[in-house]
Amino acid sequence: MNTDHCHTCELVIRRDTGDAPLWDRIYRTQYWDAAHAFNVALPGWLVLVSRHHIAAVDEMSQAEAIELGILLRDVSIALKQVVGCEKTYVMQFAESADHPHVHFHIVPRMADQPEDKKGPKIFGYMGSGEIQVSDEVMNGLAAAIQPILASQFSDTNPADFLTRGS
Question: For the domain with range 7-158, which CATH number is right: 3.40.50.720, 3.30.428.10, 1.10.600.10, 3.40.50.300?
């Protein structure tokens, strides 16, 4: 696949060069970047982005998959602590023309979530006419989430899971 026109790859490169704002570089692991989604009206809508271009989940290595599983849990824990959500939704499509790159949406589902924004209707917060989450709010959330992920993830070595067997 030609990755020349993948905006997600461009964002990974921006993180690699240190040019990303705090909200776009919340936490980095060997295989994944945690960032706040842009163009959303729901504070705490995070994404886990593969650090190399893959177009489908089956293209992940076993190590990438193991690290992803740990991060999905840890990001959900951090969101509960920081935004007070009841649970998180997790979605992955990689279908957008600008983002044909595997990334997972981890979205807080709040206790007072309106019925018209529950389940798959959560995407009503993305690209909507509602006021988008500001850089200032995203940076504040990133600053609160970073140390939680650093303390949780540092306790786990994903490579340990590769040697355990099933």
Answer: 3.30.428.10
